[in-house]
Amino acid sequence: MELTQLTLKETQEGLQTKQFSSVELTQALIRRIKKHNKKINSFITVCESEALEQAKAADQRMSQNEKEPLLGIPIGIKDNYITKGIRTTAASKVLDNYIPQYDATAVTRLKEAGALIIGKCNLDAWGHGSSGEHSAYGNTRNPWDYSRVPGGSSSGSGAAVAADFCIAATGTDTGGSIRQPASYCGVVGLKPTYGRVSRYGIIAMASSTDSIGHLTKTVRDSAAILKITAGKDSLDATTHDMPVEDYEKEMGKPIGGIKIGIPKEYYGEGLDKRIGDKINKALKLLKKIGCKLIQISLPHTEYAYPTYYIIQTAEVSSNLARYDGIRFGQGRTKFGDEAKRRIMGGTHALSTGFQDKYYKQAIRARTLLIQDFLNAFKKVDVLACPVFPFPPFKFGEREADPLQMYLADIFTVTANLTGHPGISIPVGFIEELPVGMQLIAPHFAESLLFKVAGAYEEVTGWYKVKPKLME
Amino acid sequence: MKKKRSRLTSAQIRHIANLANLSLKDEELNKFRKQLSNVFDFVDKLTEVKTTGIAETSHVTGLINQLRKDKAATENCLTQKEALQPSLKTNRGYFRVKALFKEQ
To answer: What is the mean pLDDT of residues A413-423?
Structure first.
């Protein structure tokens, strides 16, 4: 097994038992990046010299028996997390020259746990996208098929983890942007509960739905990282003081009796039958290992996307108002088309004469969507849903009509509006392209997600299948 | 009955661009007018939902009044030099902005 193929847990063990050093690991990853990243374009910035320096320092600290959980482990950071002294662009030309003066809280916590930053991952600019086709720094390609999209907006993060360019990568999920690339790249993507992880220092998209999470090779790796990034932050008033659990604790315990809700509205005409079949197979397996499958209804599902579009673009129009080229950045003429579209959509929804029809209506419809979920969680423990309505598509296929692209989000946006945590896990392949399924749990019940997802992963081992990167 | 289409006019798009502090060329205004009209046509579906008497949601996890002590958080402040560093528009320790008033 190549060093680069190791999971986070395997890497932790290997480093602690001195089977290899952080420098060896980092060098192996950098070699792999140099060989394949030109085609895949996972990174906007690669931090080769900084990472090697930090790896040396980590090895030194390990020799002195220091044992931080992520000591010496190279992580990719989505380029909408600000990183002190490391260029941060949000994949937009507006921030082409921006070098932040401080770290995001999530970055501080990862660094304090000993992690090193191997690079800044590509994304759909500002988080605006679900395919990876909207970066000002070029498309990211799906490592499983270079002619297809990796999903977005955490496109570079998903591709980097799938291609073994880093041990894990951070992401953000405002409408599906962690779960979607996880699904298309065949990795695990966690969207924590809103307010579980601090948004301080994350370039804001929609402040009431932005969720700060990560993409990993396995479910256990995901739990290990959440332990580090989660928790109240005095710098983000929307973080919750719910205690941070040992998220790995429940994993491996029997899942008998856990009720999985299957919302009928998510499995209708709009879903590619092949994806429905893969998910059904996964659910049958979960039933075999003890879960109960229960049909439920989320009656306001058809209004989820319009509600999300209004709220998200309204908040985007407000958050992107700060990019005026005065204190940082290049000015508003450098915005790409998608950013301009969303700013204008949101501005319209908030403007005099339209605010009642759109924004006020949306924030009340949001309450109805939340009630749907709360009612469902009275009957079941978790929900199981598709992530994308169709398998990974080819570049340009959905680009021409923005609305077609937006409708790729219909299964993921509701959990952002309601704040619930969700995890996307691989459930197989359709014509050699990965398919993901998402589990959604009540607020702050990430342990339950890891428990169920982990049990499925243990029995299936999909994470052992790797893409064969084209030369 | 055929649904009334949500056509945005050129004047409306110009107004929106103005509110959003975006200077757009004519071709852009026309392109966005068509695309946004299309999107809002779909989004208009939202008006079907009965929301009378339903409370507005602005925060999903129930937090209320997150306060801190009213003292300067100096451990979290940038120095003047740090604050000015990413800007392309500075002048002797200040950010340079567009004039609000014209000289008489």
So the answer is: 98
Query: CA distances (Å), A45 to each of A83, A117, A415, B25, in order?
Result: 12, 11, 31, 32
In sequence order, which residues have a C-beta less than 8 Å from that of residue A205 and are 6 or more positions away? A80, A126, A127, A128, A172, A174, A312, A315, A316, A319
In this prediction, residue B1 carries a pLDDT of 42
Q: And the tokens for B52?
A: 């009378």
Cα separation of A239 and A313, whole Å? 22
Whether residue A326 and residue B87 make contact (CB cut-off 8 A), yes or no, is: yes
Three-state SS for A331-388 is: CHHHCCHHHHHHHHHHHHHHCCCCCHHHHHHHHHHHHHHHHHHHHHHHHCCEEEEECC
Cβ contact B38–A402 (<8 Å)? yes
Identify which of A185, A197, A53 has the alpha carbon closest to the alpha carbon of residue A132: A185
- Of the candidates A92, A130, A131, A153, the residue annotated as catalytic is A153
For residues A421 and A441, the answer to whether their CB atoms sit within 8 Å is yes
Query: Residues with Cβ < 8 Å from A19, sequence gap 6 or more?
Result: A13
Burial class of residue A268 (count of CB atoms within 10 Å of its CB; 0-12, 13-18, 19+) = exposed
Residues of B in contact with A193 (CB under 8 A): 61
User: pLDDT tens digits for A300-329?
Assistant: 999 999 999 999 999 999 999 999 999 999
The single-letter code of the amino acid at A171 is: G
The first and second tokens of residue A222, run together, are 């995901």
CA angle A458, A148, A306 (to 5 degrees): 85
